[in-house]
Amino acid sequence: MEHACIRRYQTAKIVLHASNSNRLMNRFALLLLLAGLAFGQAGEAPPPRAPLTGKPSAPVNLNDSDNARKARAVLDETILTLGGDWYLTYQNKEETGRYYPLYHGRTDSTGIPYNYYIEYPDKDRFEIIHMKDVHVLPGAIDIGDVKVKNKFDLILIHNGNKGYEITYKGTAAQETEDLQNYLRRRPHSLEWVFRKWIRDPKVAWFYEGQSVVDGKECEGVTLLNSQNDSVSVFVDLNTHYPVKISYSWRDPKDKQKNVEDEVYDNYKLVQGIWTAHSITRYYNGETSQQRFVATAAYNQKLPESMFEAAVTYDPKTPLKKRK
Questions:
Q1: Model-level pTM greater than 0.90?
Q2: In the chain, what are the domain boundaries?
Q3: CATH assignment of 66-321?
Q4: How far is CA 259 from its chain centroid?
């Protein structure tokens, strides 16, 4: 009996000791919690985080590639072939020849004599010469049924972003849609590509490889600018002359994609510049216009008045209301 009582006492003592230890640990944990709350209420900022050691990545240079360097080499060689600085620095150009408007690739015309004057970068004058009746299709010259009165049946003038049509009736502003079509073509011309696009550091270059264009083995180069607009140039693999330029745009009305091409042929040397004497324009794969150059000349003394015009009448206004 005595031994049993001793064992119970020892057991109770152990339990009491464990209970005391648990209470001490609980109090210690409570103290830590209260200390943490006090630290947060004091408004002190936590210790600073270690700074990041990595450096921000540099922007990707799309032209720092073998593909882009190949594309630039192709167009550099083309410019050199066309005449180098002579080609890049001429101020104006004069053409005479015959013009053929086409519809679905066909025409009944025997050719319309024309004069064409271009002053880089944004002036030109197109004259249709003395015909009895002229009917020019939309997308080409964009006016028709002009009666003969003076030497020229029709004169189109572009100066900056303005266009004018001059007939025996007077001078009218060019139709808005026709002017927009012209202003779309101009920045995709060979002159703008070789003088503006290739000098823009934001333009990306892409070598498109070899293909057959207009029956010739060609190399293709595509340029993409910061406005997501692009133009492709196809160059003869043997002569290095430009064979075709191509670009596309989306019609704001029907949202359909349209493709416009211009094909060059029959190059002849004129004042140190190799000049195409055959120019054919395509719209969505169909021939829309052909121009055959009889004579060409550069850096002529062209008066500024050739590219100036003032509106004298509105063709949409009835005749009886015109002043």
A1: no
A2: 1-35, 66-321
A3: 2.50.20.10
A4: 13
